[in-house]
């Protein structure tokens, strides 16, 4: 389905988009990069393509136009997954502080223990997340 328009012996680049059933972009194609453009692709103007690319996640295709898309807020489960992933990353990054031969003083190790406990308790009140400050 590759289409090129030749104007004054210069190839004009054509942009395309593939969208899901809700109009959200799945892929973009351009005749200067892709030899084969999928049949389900929709031809886009340069303005439409730029609007979609520059506002990723905030635009969608609707009845031949690019329109604003307001994503649904994350569900509680999605929030918990994100919070736990961040917490687990921070705990993992501070594991070294708990080994017996760490270079920390006893006072520093106590501060790190408190920090790590606060991280483990972070999901106690998911509506009021306050991330603890990492010890120096």
Please provide the count of β strands.
Answer: 7
Mean pLDDT: 90
Question: Total domains, how many?
Answer: 2
Assembly status? single chain
Strand order within the widest beta sheet:
4-3-5
How much of the polypeptide forms β-strand, as a percent range?
Answer: 15-25%
The radius of gyration computed from the alpha-carbon positions, rounded to a whole number of angstroms, is 25 Å
Shape: elongated
Protein name: Phage tail assembly chaperone-like domain-containing protein
InterPro entries: Phage_tail_APC
Domain Phage tail assembly chaperone-like: 82-136
Quick structural summary:
By secondary structure, the protein is an alpha+beta fold. The chain folds into 2 domains: 5-68, no CATH class; 76-125.
Keyword list:
single chain, 136 residues, alpha+beta, three-stranded antiparallel sheet, two-stranded antiparallel ribbon, 3 helices, 7 strands, 31% helix, 21% strand, elongated
What does the model show?
- Helix content is 31%, strand content 21%.
- The chain has 136 residues and is α+β, with helices and mostly antiparallel strands.
- It has two domains: 5-68, no CATH class; 76-125.
- The strands form three sheets. The protein has a three-stranded antiparallel β-sheet. Strands 1-2 form a two-stranded antiparallel ribbon. Strands 6-7 form a two-stranded antiparallel ribbon.
- The model has no long low-confidence stretch (mean pLDDT 90).
């Amino acid at each position: 389905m590759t289409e090129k328009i030749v104007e004054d012996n210069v190839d004009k680049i054509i942009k395309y988009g593939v969208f899901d059933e809700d109009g959200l972009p799945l892929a973009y194609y351009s005749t200067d990069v892709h030899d084969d453009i999928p049949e389900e692709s929709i031809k886009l103007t340069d303005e439409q393509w730029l609007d979609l690319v520059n506002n990723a996640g905030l635009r969608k295709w609707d009845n031949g136009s690019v329109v604003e898309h307001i994503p649904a807020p994350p569900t509680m489960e999605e929030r918990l997954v994100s919070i736990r992933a961040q917490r687990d990353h921070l705990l993992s990054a501070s594991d070294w502080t708990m080994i017996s031969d760490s270079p920390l003083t006893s006072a520093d190790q106590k501060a790190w223990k408190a920090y790590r406990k606060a991280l483990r308790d972070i999901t106690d009140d998911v509506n009021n997340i306050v991330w603890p400050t990492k010890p120096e």
